Amino acid sequence: MAAVLTQKHGDKQRPVAYYSSKLDAVPQAMPPCLQAVEGASMALNQALPLTGAQDVNIVVPHAVLAILSGKKSSAVHVARWTQWETSLLMPSVHLQEVSSLNPATLIPSPDEGHPHHCCLKEEPMDFPLVKETEIPDAPCLYVDGSSSYVNGKRHTRWAICTQDGQLVAHGSLPGASAQVAKLQALIAAYETAEGHAINIYTDSRYTFGVVHDYLNLWVNRGFLTSTGSAIQNGGIVQKLHAAMQKPTEVAVIKVRAHTKGTDPHSKGNQRAEELAKQAAVETDQDF
């Protein structure tokens, strides 16, 4: 049995844990479809310390749900079948059959590769942990940046607004890229929240990735890449790192762009985008 536990990270899935165990002698003699049921049950039980009572989606290339919903197979003992049903048919467990590549198939088998005993050094974070889910009772801000050419000249602006669409802050960055503008909007949101908790929403995967995936690594490297060269947008990334010290608690949350949704977060994101684009077109005049 090989399995990968993933968790939603922005709009993608991020690996959290890897599991690999050898089936005992009894399921080894079963048909492949029943081995898949045993593997799903083993994976679920091994992941239980991390998943707890949360909802779990089990994605398998076999029709595990159809097997368990049908007549009990004569190849399986009653006790084992009951154990499968107890674990895999719980309301919090959702079985999905897919034919796409399963990342668990990429885990090496016991006879592949070489022994590996090194340990990674844990690097402490020197700024407050940034959450990916909303902080209860904290205000929400929506950030965006925009860059466009008007009469051959590049205009780059950023804007921040509240959930009800009120403009909080905006500014210009002549000649800068849209990525830099989005980072500047995030910096301004951090500064606005100095001394208290804040939820910050962005539709930029780049901005989300800088905060959640790369910033702590870059800080420990001195804002250098793995090859020793300076990181892209290093100056403003360092400003972001400094601004992250100001709020007491922060969540930077990824929202989908251009959804035209009517929920509060979609509307707030749309308003931030409108304000940033409006600012980019209107050059440096207030709006």
Number of strands: 10
Q: Do you know the CATH architecture of the largest domain?
A: 2-Layer Sandwich
* CATH H-level superfamily title of the largest domain: Ribonuclease H-like superfamily/Ribonuclease H
Largest sheet: 6 strands, mixed
CATH class of the largest domain: Alpha Beta
What can you see in these coordinates?
- This protein has 287 residues and is an alpha/beta fold.
- It folds into two domains: 2-106, no CATH class; 130-281, Ribonuclease H-like superfamily/Ribonuclease H (Nucleotidyltransferase, domain 5, 2-Layer Sandwich), CATH 3.30.420.
- It has eight helices and ten strands.
- The strands form three sheets. The chain has a six-stranded mixed β-sheet. The chain has a two-stranded antiparallel sheet with strand order 1-2.
- Helix 2 (32-51) packs across helix 4 (78-88) and helix 5 packs parallel to helix 7.
- The radius of gyration is 24 Å and the shape is elongated.
- Residues 118-122 and 283-287 have low confidence and may be disordered.
